Amino acid sequence: MRTVLIVDDDKNILTTLQIHLEDLGLNSYAAQTGRQGIDLFKKVKPKIVLLDLKLPDMDGLSVLNEILAVGS
Predict the structure, then answer these.
(1) What is the mean pLDDT of residues 53-68?
(2) CA-to-CA separations, 11 to 1, 8, 16, in angstroms, rounded
């Protein structure tokens, strides 16, 4: 199954995106912090990551750099 990781600190955005993605037949995982997002990425190896740039613990570009390093 195709997997999507959503990283956003806004619960409403997470919920809305998860509902729409699952309606499309996609498996989705959600994280509210950058660190949670990186940990989930390592665990589930999603095909797509939807990433907020402003997160409470780190900025989205730092999360992206760590994800890219793990995914390589």
Answers:
(1) 96
(2) 24, 8, 9
Please give the model's pTM, rounded to 2 decimal places. Answer: 0.93
CA 56 – CA 13 distance, rounded (Å): 15
Contacts of 43 (CB under 8 A, 6+ apart): none
User: For the chain, percent helix, then strand, then coil, each to nearest 5?
Assistant: 50, 20, 30
Alpha carbons 67 and 45: distance in angstroms, whole number: 10
- Helix or strand or coil: residue 33? coil
pLDDT digits (tens, 9 = 90+) for 18-39: 999 999 999 999 999 999 999 9
- Angstrom distance (rounded) from CA 35 to CA 62: 10
DSSP one-letter string for 46-60: -SEEEE-SB-SSSBH
Question: What tokens does 42 get?
Answer: 């390592």
